[in-house]
Design goal:
The complex is a heterodimer of chains A (406) and B (70). Chain A has 406 residues and is of the alpha+beta class. Chain A contains 18 helices and twelve strands. Chain A has five domains: 81 residues, no CATH class; 81 residues, PTS-regulatory domain, PRD (Orthogonal Bundle); 61 residues, Alpha-Beta Plaits (2-Layer Sandwich), CATH 3.30.70; 85 residues; 48 residues, DNA polymerase, domain 1, CATH 1.10.150. In chain A, a hairpin with a 2-residue loop joins strand 7 and strand 8. In chain A, 28% of the residues are buried. By secondary structure, chain B is α+β, with helices and mostly antiparallel strands. The radius of gyration of chain B is 12 Å and the shape is globular. Chain B has two helices and four strands. Chain B has a single domain, classed as Eukaryotic RPB6 RNA polymerase subunit. The chains are: A alpha+beta (406), B alpha+beta (70). Chains A and B meet through helix 2, helix 4, helix 13, helix 14 and helix 15 of A and helix 1, strand 2, helix 2 and strand 4 of B.
Chain lengths: 406, 70
């Protein structure tokens, strides 16, 4: 039984060892470019210590008393040889356990107050690289000197977006003077801690061609156009109701929770750029589940690590123990072109260099005609195109080129 | 979340490409509009060295070439 467990734990590292050593190779080659081939090989091997450390830790957690040299021996044995199709194995290793996860798409966070997408739909969402997830969510951490309930509430009130309709008690049209009159609810203003002058300022930024004036608890809106029809005025009234007056755009709900020693704000809706600028927000830890947003605010490398974190979290939550190195490979591929590409027609598959490989996936005719118009060349370097034309595919033993002498 | 980015000197780029036996455009890309690239003031075709540090794989180095956005 114990034997089996070790086997299982060690089966996984192999495929991405290939990928890792590829990265490591680059490092070593740059640094030690004068060393001989032999020395280079040694360097690559010593850098795998980090991996062995990881599996040693994992073995300890599972109460296995394998010694380090044994682990190392097995690890070396399990490593992939060059030519192994690691991409296919990564795809299977993620997709097979994903079919076992629940199909229930929502999951409650923070005592059931926030609903977020989890499970298989969330994984699909990440690999599709959607611009906006179904349930955008942020987790805001606070800096040490703001780590109190009062400060957390204060920041939450800055983060949460309030709309004008939340403080309206009565709104009416002045047909004679062609104005919109809005009476405000004093209690609501107090609850939401809104300053009316600030609110008017924010509104002025958002609505064009209108004069907005505030007197006591009445806001009067006039159009700058002279001949405004009643119909247009009615439209203006509806438009103004939806105007944000306070907070960060896109954030609908805020929930404050204490996690251990830290106060954490969960939000429904996401606006990383603005939230990171708020004073007291820990900009190193605060995250959102919108990967494309992370990539645009913090750069492509942050986006890459966000993919890994999000998929790992989703899989772990479902009790799936896929090795992280499969995800490293997928994330690297998705971030290859400098933007987060989806795994599909317009992303990774659509950006392949080979014409036949693209045509093989989807939209065959489109790719073939475009290639013909553009005069593209097929190099027959990949696997798909070689399989299609019946050549020896450059994978596994097909990768090796040997000539018999004499 | 953001690993260390550095611009690689022209000499280092040359030996790197020689070692890997590839051309510059075969490296992974990073857009010129990327916030980190702007911060570093990197130009098109510069190679950026990224030092990733993860608890799982340890330290690893990755390279990206700056690409002008179409």
């Amino acid at each position: 039984m114990a034997e089996e467990k070790v086997e299982k734990a060690e089966e996984k590292p192999q495929e991405s060892a290939e990928e890792d050593s590829a990265e490591v190779k680059i490092e070593n080659k740059d640094k030690e470019r004068k060393t001989t081939n032999l020395e280079k090989n040694v360097l690559i091997k010593t850098d795998n210590d980090a991996l062995i450390n990881y599996y040693e830790k994992k073995a300890e957690e599972a109460n296995l008393t394998e010694n380090r040299s044994e682990l190392k021996k097995r690890y070396e044995k399990m490593k992939y040889e060059s030519g192994e199709a690691i991409g296919v194995i990564a795809a299977q290793s993620i997709a097979e356990p994903a079919t076992q996860t629940t199909l229930q798409s929502y999951h409650r966070v923070s005592g059931g107050k926030l609903l977020t997408t989890k499970g298989l739909p969330r994984i699909i969402e990440i690999f599709d690289a959607r611009a906006e997830p179904k349930t955008p969510m942020m987790k805001i951490y606070l800096e040490d000197d703001h780590n109190t309930k009062e400060k957390a509430l204060e920041i939450a009130s800055i983060v949460k977006e309030s709309k004008l309709k939340q403080i309206i008690s009565e709104d009416s049209l002045d047909m004679v003077n062609l104005k919109v009159e809005i009476k405000l609810d004093e209690n609501q203003i107090k609850n939401l801690q809104i300053n009316i002058d600030d609110a008017v300022k924010t509104m002025k930024k958002n609505v064009k061609n209108v004069n907005i004036t505030a007197e006591d608890n009445v806001i009067i809106i006039e159009s700058k156009k002279t001949n405004i029809s009643i119909n247009e005025l009615q439209m203006l009234r509806i438009k103004v109701r939806e105007m944000p007056i306070k907070g960060t755009k896109g954030v609908e709900q805020c929930i404050i929770e204490k996690e251990g020693e830290l106060w954490v704000i969960y939000t429904l809706g996401s606006n990383l750029k603005k939230v990171l600028k708020i004073e007291g927000v820990d900009s190193k830890k605060t995250t959102t589940n919108n990967i494309k947003e992370i990539a645009s605010v913090l750069g492509i490398e942050a986006g890459r690590s966000a993919i890994i974190n999000e998929v790992t979290d989703t899989l772990r939550e479902q009790g799936v123990d896929t090795d992280t190195r499969h995800l490293l490979l997928v994330a690297d591929v998705m971030a290859w072109h400098g933007v987060i590409d989806s795994i599909g027609r317009y992303g990774v598959s659509g950006k392949k260099k080979s014409i036949l490989a693209r045509a093989n996936f989807e939209e065959t005719i489109k790719h073939l005609t475009n290639a013909a118009i553009g005069g593209e060349t097929e190099e027959f370097k990949g696997i798909i195109e070689n399989v299609m034309v019946g050549n020896l595919a450059p994978v596994g033993t097909g990768l090796v080129k040997l000539k018999l002498k004499g | 979340m953001v690993p260390k980015h550095e611009i690689l000197s022209e000499d280092a780029v040359k030996s790197l490409l020689e070692m890997l036996r590839i051309t510059r455009k075969e490296l992974p890309k990073i857009l010129e509009s990327d916030v980190i690239v702007k911060e570093l003031n990197a130009k098109e075709n510069d190679v950026i060295q990224i030092t990733r540090n993860s608890s799982l794989v340890g330290k690893s180095i990755y390279y990206r070439v700056v690409l002008k956005e179409q």
